[in-house]
């Protein structure tokens, strides 16, 4: 199922409206703090679909579900706490090792 990114508020920037509607509405930019983020390339009205991703970019379980899902494969069940940090939960040793190298 494709993932849709939708704007949630009107942009307050006063960018020029001369940009082409065929140009991408977003771009991925690197930041000095070593992360990447999506940035709008022009002002976008609230509620406008700006891009449809073919698969999710991020899947983050809620805090209430962290101890009932494997942190690597997201398999539900009764995973055990990580032997190093005790904060993540894994369904088995293979998933724990795979997560450490990912």
UniProtKB/TrEMBL annotation:
Matching SUPFAM superfamilies: HIT/MYND zinc finger-like (SSF144232)
Gene3D superfamilies for the chain: 6.10.140.2220, SET domain
Provide ranges: composition bias, Low complexity: 1-23
| Chain segments carrying region Disordered | 1-37
What residue stretches are annotated with the MYND-type domain? 70-102
Entry's Pfam families? zf-MYND (PF01753)
The UniProt entry, under InterPro entries, shows: ASHR2-like, SET_dom_sf, Znf_MYND
Q: Which PROSITE patterns match?
A: ZF_MYND_2
Its Gene Ontology molecular function terms? zinc ion binding
Name the keywords, alphabetized. Metal-binding, Zinc, Zinc-finger
Protein name as it appears in the record: MYND-type domain-containing protein
Q: Which organism is it from?
A: Claviceps africana
